[in-house]
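Sample entry as discussed:
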Amino acid sequence: MEIAEFNVRCYICWKKFVIPALSDFNYGEFLFVNYKTREFRHFNRFDKNGIEKIISEKLNSDQELQFKNDETKGNIYLKLVGKLSDGEFEPIFSNVKCPRCKCGFHSFPNNKIGMTNIAELTFEKSNEKTIEENLKNLII
């Protein structure tokens, strides 16, 4: 998927770094990042029926997780997607953490520097397991 890249500046340590950002028209699509490798991936919620089934099972089995599955309370759905993905990917909720100081408090991405291709989040390891095996490993 081709996505816009932006320069931002950390408000804590003043480091400049580049981040991708989805447009407001990307409904159902989310960005994830692996902070160890600084690799970004995208996820389309409407393309992953197998993953959706595992997450629905998990949310239906725990009343507290259902309550927290809201954008204002922690968005458990996206955290579970990150846990099921191949690699150590975390959802990007508002700000990407700075590579230097690890704080997520940076300038608004308003100066576009270009376009980049971002790979899709993969779930090969999760797809090889049964639903029950995946549910056992989903701990938040």
Summary: The chain has a mean pLDDT of 88.
